[in-house]
Structure formats: C-alpha cells, structure tokens
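Translate sequence into structure tokens.
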Amino acid sequence: MKILFTGGGTGGHTFPLIATIREIRNLYSKKDLEFFYIGPKDEFSSILLSQEDVHVRTIAAGKIRRYFSFQNFIDILFKIPWSFLQSFYYLVRIDPQLVFSKGGSGSLPVTLCAGIFRIPVFLHESDIVPGLSNRITSRWAKKIYISFPRTEYFDLSKTTLVGNPIRLEIMNGSKEKAKELFNLTLEKPVFLFLGGSQGAEFINDFVLMILNNFLQDFEIIHVCGMLNLKGVETEARAVINKDLEKYYHLYSFLDEEKLKHAYKAVDFVMSRAGAGGIFEVAAMGLPSILVPLPSAAANHQAKNAYSYAETGAAIVMEQDNLTLNFFLEKIKYIFVRPQALEKMKEEALRFSKPMAAKTIARNILEYLSID
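Result follows.
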C-alpha cells in the first residue's frame, strides 16, 4: 500500500504531514505501507520528511499571484504546466492508493492528476480562509478536514472539524532540561518570541526595540529565523545592556527537541497567527499574543487570530498598531493578575485538539480498509 502526501513546502504544511505520518505508523506497524511526498523543492521540508522515511519527489513550484507580476507569466506559461507533467509522471510511477493534501500552490498539480486517475484525495485546511489550491481541490476531494469551526467556502457535508495536526512529541518537554539547553536563569517569567519557520522581520525588529525595557521584568527566548540570525545577533549585541545579557537567548530555529523543552519553560508566547503555531501553543496551554501577517493571502492570519482570541486564550495585536508602550502596559497588566493568566491557559487547553493527527490517520486507514 502506498500513501502519497503533498503540500506547499513550508513548515506550516510540513509539520502537520509529519504528525499525520507518525500517527499512521503508530496505528499500523506492519512494513507493507510506504509513504511518498510530492511538492515544491524545499531543502528544509525534504530533510524533515526524509527523516520520517518518506520518499520525496520535487516538482516546479509555480503559483498564481493575486496582483500584477511578470513572474505570473513565467509561472502560468512554463512552471505550472511543467509541474503538472511532473506530477502526472510521478503518480504513474508511484501508483498510490490515496493522496493526502495540505494545500499550497505546490499541491494543486498533484491533486489535479489524482483526480484524473480517480485516486481518492483527502484534504486538510489549516486556516479559516482556504487557499486557492484547496478551494479547487475540494471539488473532488473525498474528505475535507478543517481546523477552525467557521472555516469558509467548503461543502459542509464533506467536512470534519479536527483541528490542525501537531506532533505530540512537542508536548513531552521538561522545564529542567530547558533550563540547561537555553541557559535560562528562571529568575523572571520567560517569554517566547516566534516568527514561524521562516522567521518574522517585524517581530525581530520589535524585540530589538523593546529589548532593554522588556528584560527588566522578563527573560526572553527569541527565535528569529534561519536567514535572520546574523543581523539580529549583531543588532542585539549593539543595543543590549550588559547586565541584562543573561536574560536574552537568541536562536535561528528550534528543532523538535529544543522546541518541546522551550514550551515547558515559557510562560507566554508572541507569534504570527499561522494555524500551526496557534494549535501548538494551545495544546501546551500557553497564553499568547498573536500578530497577524498583514500580507497573508485573503487576510487569513487575522481571521485565524481573532477566531482563536474569541475564546479568551490570546490577545490580537495588529502590526500597524503595535507600539512599545501599548505592548509593555498590556503584558504587565496581565502578569499582575494571576487569575487572568490562568484563565487564558484554561481557554487555550479547551480550544486545543491534540488528537487531530490521530483522527485523520485512523480515517485514512479505515478508508483503505487496513487493520
């Protein structure tokens, strides 16, 4: 039996696929089941998926932008047709029994070919506003899994609310191990700043702007993105007060091992509003501040953020309105009211759906009649 996975190639697509693959393996331990992945070339995703014993095949990553760009002509005339031919070839060679798609522009050629070959397609949508690829694929998908209750566009008769799949391993960290790994003092509440797998330039700049003020009352773990480390490190070294250096811990990226321990040690999180980050933070019962990416397609991050914040688990701060004084006052206000902080933790856990990957895995195996 062969199951084929596809997705856009970012951490937001890759980590849920990994979570689902692990759960399928937990439920079905025989060796006669193979996993394949077809998607855009991305070294980060390829390495992670290969570590899960997934056979990776890459295709051209064309996309249709919703604004004028000469790159659209190249993608529409060359990359997209080529990606379709590549997908056609790989599906003939692999001959999977089922395709599971996380969406993204790199997934559409694969799901289109699956539709032509009558291969059943299961679809997962992380965001409240589905991307174009998932909207198109939903027309022939056998099953659609959604993360948020009010997800737009889809035929409700085909949808199942499961949440966003997370790797359960990230829930098994240790505060003591985190103290050792990150050289934490734990003399103050620990604040985690996350920018997603690619980092977030605005969040990086904001941390540098508030650094000395914030370190008076908090300890920071700052994840700045792999391409941003050198610049952020140089700027931080230039502005930070020497007596506060021990409270600032800068990293380009946290692998799974480090992330699970970090989650156990921190008291509060500030991040973008991608669904992956929201559901991980919720599963850990961590209060959060969400700063939606203004340029996100169809404003989906803002809609994710406000939907989650309605539960009381998080606060949304729009990027254009985020100032030093407003942020510091809001955080201090929360931390002097332990009952408010505890309420945010409770609501985060109530919202969380840590069994999403297991639910999807079980459905896939049941559909394929594997036991």
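Note: Residues 2-165+354-367 form a domain with the Rossmann fold fold (CATH 3.40.50.2000).
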